[in-house]
Amino acid sequence: MSKLKQPVIIGITGGSGSGKTTIAHEIAAQIHDNDHVIMITQDAYYRANDAMPMSARQQINYDHPDAFDTPLLVHQIDQLVHRQAIEMPIYDFTKHNRSNQTIHVDPADIIILEGILVLANEELRNLMDIKIYVDTDDDIRFIRRLTRDLKERGRSLDSVIKQYLATVKPMYHQFIEPTKRYADIIVPEGGANNVAIDMLTTKVRSILDHNQDEDN
Q1: What is the pLDDT of residues 157-203, one digit of tens each?
Q2: Under a CB-based contact definition with an 8 Å cutoff, are residues 105 and 39 in contact?
Q3: Which of 44, 121, 148, 174 is least enclosed, having the fewest CB within 10 Å?
Q4: Contact at 8 Å (CB) between 128 and 9?
Q5: 112 alpha-carbon distance from chain centroid
């Protein structure tokens, strides 16, 4: 299959625990030709906090737009659009800091960008061809986040609850939920919505098939 002249960028957003990452993975997994699909997560682009002690890092509001290195994310997405490989950062959630290592990412026809605030930045939105908002009940999102942070990020029950009440919930209503108005598609219930995932996958396949037909 030939490459598209211009990659198609799909932005997937929603609150923490909404199922946006599951949807992104499902779309990528269901596209058989994985060389033509890559996934970029906004979580990798949290700012480096090398100069801060751990106690200060733990107090950062990680659900605020300022917590992200958005200029770097925009720059690297633009590089992928122009068929240039990138070195995507790695964020270590157990240390609340960016790793010294990176992940080499080659350009692809379909770029799936997922994260809680990918629709909050106009410059980033303007790079997207399809914008998706995953709309999931607050209680379900909290339970999913609690389970994830305890198992995968080495957090305590008390710290997860405090962070949720202090920053996660208020930032969701202030910065994330309002970006719903920019979405082309709103998906209820996240990864459990198999119908929506099938429809989105069909759309991605049609883009690739259309490109193949044009080049033949």
Answers
A1: 998 899 899 999 999 999 999 999 999 999 987 777 888 888 888 88
A2: no
A3: 174
A4: yes
A5: 8
Radius of gyration of the chain from its Cα atoms, rounded to whole angstroms: 17
What is the phi/psi pair of residue 141, to 5°? -65, -40
Tokens, residue 11: 């932005």
Residue-wise DSSP of 102-165? EEEE---SEEEEE-TTTTT-HHHHTT-SEEEEEE--HHHHHHHHHHHHHHHS---HHHHHHHII
Based on the number of CB atoms within 10 Å of its own CB, is 45 exposed (0-12), middle (13-18) or buried (19 or more)?
buried
For residues 15 and 136, the answer to whether their CB atoms sit within 8 Å is yes
Residue type, 196: A
What confidence tens digit (pLDDT) does each residue in 116-146 have? 999 999 999 999 989 999 998 889 899 988 9
| SS3 (DSSP) at 97 | strand
> What is the per-residue pLDDT for 3?
58
Q: Which residues does 44 contact at the CB level (< 8 Å), separation at least 6?
A: 88, 89, 90, 91, 103
Quick one: CATH architecture of 8-215? 3-Layer(aba) Sandwich (3.40)
